Amino acid sequence: MTAADGGEPERSRAGGVTRREVITGAVALGVGVGVDRAIGAGGGSGSGHPPKPLRGEPRSFRAVPFHGTHQAGIATPAQEYLTFAAFDLTARSRARLRSLMIAWTRAAAQLTAGEPYRVSGAGGAPLGSRAPADTGEAVGLPPAALTLTFGFGPSLFSSSSGLGLGASVPAELQPLPPFEGERLEPARSGGDLCVQACANDPQVAFHAVHVLRRIAAGAARLRWSQLGFGRTSATSRNQETLRNLMGFKDGTDNIHGEDAARMDRFVWVGAAEGPPWMVGGSYLVARRISILFDSWDATSLHEQERTIGRHKHSGAPLGREAEYDPLDLHAREADGSPTIPNDAHVRIASPESNEGQRILRRGYSYSEATGDDGGELDAGLFFIAFQRSVERQFVPLQSHLAGFDALNRHTLHTSSAVFACPPGAAPGGYVGEHLLG
Length: 437
Fold this sequence. Notes:
Elements: H1 19-24, H2 34-38, E1 81-89, H3 94-112, E2 147-152, E3 193-199, H4 202-215, E4 220-231, H5 260-266, E5 282-291, H6 293-297, H7 301-308, H8 345-349, E6 360-361, E7 364-368, E8 378-387, H9 390-404, E9 411-421, H10 433-436
Antiparallel strand pairs: 1-3, 1-4, 2-3, 4-7, 5-8, 5-9, 6-8, 7-8
Helix pairs in contact: 3-4
């Protein structure tokens, strides 16, 4: 929010400097300094004070604290937009990876507070003669509830990485097994590192990944990325369940971040599992799921509802009236057939059908340019889920879905990745400190 909007000018936590003033002021520094100089940056990122929301600004556009016991962007109420990026590490040094994570952490604390990225040590060159540290596309924009969540992929711990981290790899962090019916694109799968940027302004989310990619130059290169819009699950009791690109309400029975008991049971890694550096963290699974619209759009409403197991317009389970009515998998029609078909998506995915297991869904819709496939839309769901155990939660669930879900006739999984997201960083620390410190 700006003064022209009737509110206060956007201010940083440190010294009342506006985002625009820092961009144009003498503290801006070119990217050429690299990661090792960037980690010496000070500013407001390590103050430990909570970010100050703008007066009169909608809550959905205020800053979300970066530092904490858990990384933000997991239990945080899901925002409206996503920029997800996976990186391959090019530096073969644990010290270099440590420097990158320190730099990323400090930059993330600035960006999520609504501040521009800045580093110290401007040197003697005039400001206009070098590229600014911050890329500038978020100048004048509020924090927009930006969260940045970092993760480490299985390949980071392999012997070929040269980092010597093999003894620290969690048993849960293994490449996902193949699933029936998927057609994965290797170039859009996997990765050594990931960044999940979520915000209520798409430009704020893009800007954050843009800056982090520049910081990573010489240490890591972008492997693949995905833009998302329209969250597909409610992750807070205060959020309405939105519709996915198939037109159905999605994620009605999702875990809510305020439910501490379920978060501890299903999402956060406990001390018993280890390793110690992952306690308080979570495992992220990402899957790009294309919708086969030619098939889906030609399906009758009755069959669409039987495929999902819910009424399209109300979101209620078949045979019920309201969205939040309990799912009754034992209900029968007059002829004795199950009200919710045996292969309906909600039946196959329900905790009752999966030994009580749940995952925290945090996915987004996506839409991209049409390829040379006869005009079929390239759009669908960029599925993101957090869980305490990939082996006990996601793998059995996806195996069950791949084998029996009626929705498989209308979807195709085209990319896949898994990452270990460590716990949050304390002020003055960095994400992954207990692994790399």
